[in-house]
């Protein structure tokens, strides 16, 4: 499981941004498509909104990988 640390000044990060920052996709366009296609889960539920606000404590899964967001 990967850990993604939010910057101290940030309360959230958008779903598309976090999967790109984690290196799971190469570009924002790729992030858009995998999210729209229902391939990404947030806290065990499929979410098709790339602008979804991801906060500390959220667990993101994609393609067999997991990422936990921490503050």
From TrEMBL:
It comes from the Bacteria. Pfam families: S4_2. Keywords: RNA-binding. InterPro entries: S4_RNA-bd_sf. This is Ribosome-associated protein. One of its GO terms (molecular function) is RNA binding. CDD domains: S4. Gene3D superfamilies: RNA-binding S4 domain (3.10.290.10). Signal peptide: none annotated. PROSITE patterns: S4.
């Amino acid at each position: 499981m990967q850990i993604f640390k939010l910057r101290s000044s940030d309360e959230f990060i958008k779903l598309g941004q976090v999967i790109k920052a984690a290196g799971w996709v190469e570009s924002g366009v790729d992030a858009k498509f995998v999210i729209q296609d229902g391939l990404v889960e947030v806290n065990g539920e499929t979410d098709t909104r790339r602008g979804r606000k991801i906060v500390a404590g959220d667990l993101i899964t994609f393609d067999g990988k997991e990422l936990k967001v921490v503050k």
